[in-house]
């Protein structure tokens, strides 16, 4: 499954790296593509959407399912 999350608070490449790492830490995630320009994270795999939102929230960003 592929899901897209809006992450509006990202302002730099370090933010992108942090969000990518947080998403990859969630069980079942197979691929992550984070775009600073589009303010979104596209996550692939077999995971719970709430776990992605929580992982991103825990590093200080707010994510919503698009």
TrEMBL record:
UniProt GO MF annotations: metal ion binding
Keyword Metal-binding in annotation: yes
SUPFAM superfamilies from the UniProt entry: HMA, heavy metal-associated domain (SSF55008)
Entry-linked Gene3D superfamilies: 3.30.70.100
Domain spans labelled HMA: 1-64
InterPro entries (alphabetical): HMA_dom (IPR006121), HMA_dom_sf (IPR036163)
UniProt keywords, alphabetically: Metal-binding
Signal peptide: none
PANTHER family: COPPER TRANSPORT PROTEIN ATOX1-RELATED, COPPER TRANSPORT PROTEIN ATX1
Name of the protein: Heavy-metal-associated domain-containing protein
Species, as recorded: Finegoldia magna (Peptostreptococcus magnus)
């Amino acid at each position: 499954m592929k899901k897209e999350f809006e992450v509006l608070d990202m302002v730099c490449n370090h933010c992108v790296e942090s969000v990518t790492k947080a998403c990859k830490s969630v069980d079942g995630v197979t691929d992550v593509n984070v775009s600073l320009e589009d303010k979104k994270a596209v996550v692939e795999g077999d995971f719970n959407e709430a776990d992605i939102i929580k992982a991103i929230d825990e590093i200080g960003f707010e994510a919503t399912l698009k």
